[in-house]
Amino acid sequence: MLEFSAMETNVNASVKRACKAVGGQRALAIALGIADAQVNQWVTGRRGVPAKYCQSIVELTEGLVSVQELRPADWHLIWPEPKSPEADLIHAIHYDPIEGNDS
């Protein structure tokens, strides 16, 4: 696992990439409906990116920035890994806990 200062630096770089992708700090703030100062605090590392903005940032950057980059310490607690096609197939099989698999 990355040390805290390394994680913080990576988050700052990710927020900077997000700003660049959408046209700057002000553009990101407007798109998120927040104050410019809040985005600046993320860029400078004074504050972390709140979880409630992460998915919007991912969408605004068209995936250039990921939730894993914005919240490296706890992203997995907020956004579990997407289901895989293999898991979808397994879950599609009817299962009766009393009778077992009904294939």
Summarize the structure in words.
- It is built from 7 helices and 2 strands; from the N terminus they run H-H-H-H-H-H-H-E-E.
- It has a domain at 4-75: 434 Repressor (Amino-terminal Domain), CATH 1.10.260.
- The protein is elongated and about 50 Å long.
- The model has no long low-confidence stretch (mean pLDDT 80).
- 18% of the residues are buried.
- It has helices at 4-22, 25-32, 36-44, 51-60, 67-70, 75-78, 85-92, and strands at residues 95-96, 100-101.
- The longest helix has 19 residues, at 4-22.
- The chain has a two-stranded antiparallel sheet with strand order 1-2.
- The chain is mainly alpha-helical.
- The N and C termini lie far apart (42 Å).
> CA-to-CA gap between the ends?
42 Å
Q: Give the low-confidence spans.
A: none
Note the beta-strand portion: under 5%
In CATH terms, what is the architecture of the domain at 4-75?
Answer: Orthogonal Bundle
Mean pLDDT rating: 80
Gross morphology is elongated
Task: Output the strand order for the largest sheet.
Answer: 1-2
Estimate the helix proportion, in percent. Answer: 55-70%
Largest sheet: 2 strands, antiparallel
Topology order in helix (H) and strand (E) letters: HHHHHHHEE
Q: CATH homologous superfamily name of the domain at 4-75?
A: lambda repressor-like DNA-binding domains
Radius of gyration: 19 Å
* Total beta-strand segments: 2
